[in-house]
From TrEMBL, chains A, B, C, D:
This is L-ribulose-5-phosphate 4-epimerase. InterPro entries: Aldolase_class_II_sugar_metab (IPR050197), Aldolase_II/adducin_N (IPR001303), Aldolase_II/adducin_N_sf (IPR036409). It catalyses: L-ribulose 5-phosphate = D-xylulose 5-phosphate. Residues 8-196 form the Class II aldolase/adducin N-terminal domain. Belongs to the aldolase class II family. AraD/FucA subfamily. It comes from the Bacteria. Its EC number is 5.1.3.4. Its cofactor is Zn(2+). It is an enzyme of class 5 (isomerase). GO terms for cellular component: cytosol. Keywords: Carbohydrate metabolism, Isomerase, Metal-binding, Zinc. GO terms for molecular function: aldehyde-lyase activity; L-ribulose-phosphate 4-epimerase activity; metal ion binding.
Length: 230, 230, 230, 230
C-alpha cells in the first residue's frame, strides 16, 4: 500500500462518519497506520467534512512529526499515537462523540453485554477508563488520554474489545483498518442505544449468559468463524 | 411463480429493510419460500446491501442444501428453515436487529398490546422465547433458535401473531410473502418504540381492553375485514 | 373552490404527512370539507402514499355516500364525518399514529401544557377521551370514536384546541383547512415528544403559568394577534 | 461588510437551521448585527424556510425601527435587540425550539456540564432564567424575555457562555457571527440530548471535574487555543 492509498482510505473512512451519522460539525476523526513505514495518516483539525479530500489528510511519524501535508493534524493525535504504540495489531482508530456512547461515558458506566448484537462485535462489556488526574490533564492531556486507555486494557486483547469509553469524554474504537474502526464505532453507538433502552425497561438487567456471548463472538471472529463469505 | 421471480422478490424485500431503516450494516435478512418446489431463497451472508442484486440471492432446499447461487446463505438460515417447516402457511421470514424490538428482547420482556397500532397487526402481546441452554447453543445454535421459537408458539397461530422476540437476541417476523414479513418487522419496531414510551409515562400500564384488540385485529384480518381495497 | 381543487388540497395534505414523517406505511389520513356543498374529500383506504394522486381521493356526502371516486374511503371516515357535523367551523381533519402522541394516548395521559411551543398552538392540555365501551365498539366503532371525542369536547372550543388523543388509540387533529390540520398534527407530535422528555427530567413538572399560556396563544390566534404577516 | 452581505449571512444562517434539523415549521430565527451602523438584520415573522431569500431579511435599528424590507420582523425581535444592547461583543443570535433544549427549559433545569462535548463550547452549566412575572408578560413580553436573560447573566461572560434556557420557553444562543450562533444552537441541542441520557443512566450524575472543563474550554477558546487551523 502506498502512502497515497492510505490517505485515500483515511479520507474515505472519515467521510463514512458522516454517512453513518456519527459526527456533528467536526467532532470526530479517523486515522490509519502504515506499520512498515511507521507512518500515521490522520484527519486535519477542525476541517469541515463537506470539503475534505485525500490531500487534506496529514501524515505524521510515531513521534508526531509531520511528514506530509500543510494542515495541523487532529488535536487528538497524541491519543491515536499512544494507542498505535501500545496496540501493535490495530491498523485504524476512530474517535467520535456519538450520542449514546457519550451518555455512558458521561454517566461513568460501562456498557454491559445485554445481547447478541453486542456479542457479535465486542467480547464482553465495553470498558470505561478512569478520569485523568488534574496533573495528567495539565501535563499532556491528549497523550494521557491514551495512557488511561492503555492502563484500562491491561489483560484485555484490543482486537477482541475494539472500543473504550473515556470517562466524562467519549468513545474511541479501532480495528484492523481505518474502515473497520469506523464500523466498530457505529456498532458501539447502536449497542449503547439499545443498552440504554434495555436499562429503561429493566434497570437491573443481567448480562447475556457467557455461553451465548462466546458463541456469537466466535461465530464471527474465532478461527472457525462461519459468518460472511470466506 | 418462477424461481427467478422468487429471487427478485426476496432481493427487493431485503432492500426494503434499508428503506425502512431496519438494518445497520448487514444485520438482517429476508427469505421467501416456494412451497410447491420446497425451495427457499435467502440473502447471502455478510453481503452489503449497497451492491445486492437478485443473482446474489441463494436458493436452498428445506434440508439446507444449496440449489442455486455461489455465495454462502445467511448464517441464520437454519432458523428460517425450522420456521418454514413448523409454520406451514407462512411464505416469508425477516430477521432484524431493529433497535426498539431488541431492547425488549434484551430486557426479557414481551411487548404488551397497549394500543390499536399493535392490535391492527398482532393479536395480543408479542411473545418472548426462553434463552437457549448451553447445550442447545453448542449443538446447533441457529437451528435451536428455531426450536425455542416453535416451542413458544405452542397453541399460537403464527399468522395471527407474525413476530417473536428471541431472548437476549432480536426479533423474527413472518408473513404470507417476503414483503409481508418486512412490513411486520417494521410494525413491530414501531410498536416496540411506542410501548417503551408508554411504559416511561406509566410503568404499570394495563393492556388494551380485549374487545378493542379483537375489533381492530378483525377489521383488518378477519373474514369480514373491511380495511383497504378488496 | 371547485371539488377538484379540494381533492388536490386533500391529496397534497396527505402527502405532507410523509414529508413531516408523521406516517408509517398507510397509517394516517387527511380529509377536507366543502361546507357549501356538504361534501367531504378523503384519502382512500390502504393506498400507498408513493402512488397517491388527486384522482384517488374519494368524495362523499355527510351521510357517507360516495359521490366521486371508485376506491373505498378511509375506514376512519365515520369519525371524520362525526367531527365535521359537530365542529362546524373546521375545514380539515388529520388522523395519524405519530409515535409520541400515541405514547400518551396509550398511557391514558393528557399532554399538559409545559411550554410556549405548546401554548402557541393549543390553548391548554391536549384532551384525552375515555375508552369506548364494548357496546360502542361492536355497534359502530368508527362512528363512536367520533362520539367520544365530541363528548370530551363539551365546553371546549375546537378551534382553540385543535387536537385530541383517543384513549388506547391515537390522535386526531383539525384546523381551518386540510393543510392546517396536518400542521396541527405535526405540532402535536413535537409537543408530545418534548413533554415526554420534560416528564423524564421532572416527573411532577407543573404546567406553564396560565398568564404565559394566554399570552402565547393570543399573540398567534387572538383578535390582536401580531405573529406572522397580516 | 455591506448591509447586503449581512442580509446574505443572516439568510444563510437561517437556512442552516433547516440543514441541522433545529426547526419545525417556522419556529426559529437568526439575526446578525452591524455594530458600526447600529443595524440588525433578522428573519421575517412566519415566512417559510422553503422560499426564504436574502431580500426577505428585514433590517431594523436598535430601537426596532424598520430600515429595509417590507415584511414584519420576527416577533422575537425585541429579545434580540435587548441582547445586542447588553452583550456588546456578540454579532449574531439564534432562537430555536430544538427538542432537547426545550425539555430542560420546560422542566426548569439547567444543563450541567457532564462531559467534554459540553466543555468544548460552554464554560459551565447552561443557565436557566426565571419565569417572567405576569406584569412583565403583559407589559412587554418579548422585551422582558431579554430582561430576564440579561438579569441571569449578571457576572457571566456571554462569550464564554453563549446560550441560555428561558424557563418554560426555549433556548437562545449567540456568537461572534450569525453562523456562530447557529453552531452554538446545534451544540446546545446535542449537549441537551446527551445530558438527558446521562441523567437516565445516573440520576445524580456529578458534573465534569472543573480541571477537565477548564482544559477543554481553553484548548478551543483561550489565548493559547490549539484546536483547528490558525
Amino acid at each position: 500500500m502506498t502512502l497515497n492509498e492510505l490517505k485515500e482510505q483515511v479520507c474515505h473512512a472519515n467521510l463514512e462518519l458522516v454517512k453513518y451519522q456519527l459526527v456533528t460539525l467536526t467532532w470526530g476523526n479517523v486515522s490509519g497506520i502504515d506499520r512498515e513505514r511507521g507512518l500515521v495518516a490522520i484527519k486535519p483539525s477542525g476541517v469541515s467534512y463537506d470539503i475534505m479530500r485525500p490531500e487534506h489528510i496529514v501524515v505524521i511519524d510515531l513521534d508526531g512529526k509531520r511528514v506530509e501535508g500543510t494542515l495541523n493534524p487532529s488535536s487528538d493525535t497524541p491519543t491515536h499515537l499512544a494507542l498505535y504504540k501500545a496496540f501493535e495489531k490495530i491498523g485504524g482508530i476512530t474517535h467520535t462523540h456519538s450520542e449514546h456512547a457519550v451518555m455512558f461515558a458521561q454517566a461513568g458506566r460501562e456498557i454491559p453485554c445485554f445481547g447478541t448484537t453486542h456479542a457479535d462485535h465486542f467480547y464482553g462489556a465495553i470498558p470505561l477508563t478512569r478520569y485523568l488526574t488534574e496533573q495528567e490533564v495539565e501535563e499532556d492531556y491528549e497523550g494521557n488520554t491514551g495512557t488511561v486507555i492503555i492502563e484500562r486494557f491491561a489483560g484485555i486483547n484490543p482486537l477482541e474489545m475494539p472500543a473504550v469509553l473515556v470517562a466524562g469524554h467519549a468513545p474511541f474504537a479501532w480495528g484492523k483498518t481505518p474502515e473497520d474502526s469506523v464500523k466498530n464505532s457505529l456498532v458501539l453507538e447502536k449497542v449503547a442505544q439499545m443498552a440504554l433502552g434495555t436499562l429503561q425497561l429493566r434497570p437491573e438487567n443481567p448480562p447475556l449468559p457467557a455461553y451465548v456471548l462466546q458463541k456469537h463472538y466466535l461465530r464471527k471472529h474465532g478461527p472457525n468463524a462461519y459468518y460472511g463469505q470466506k
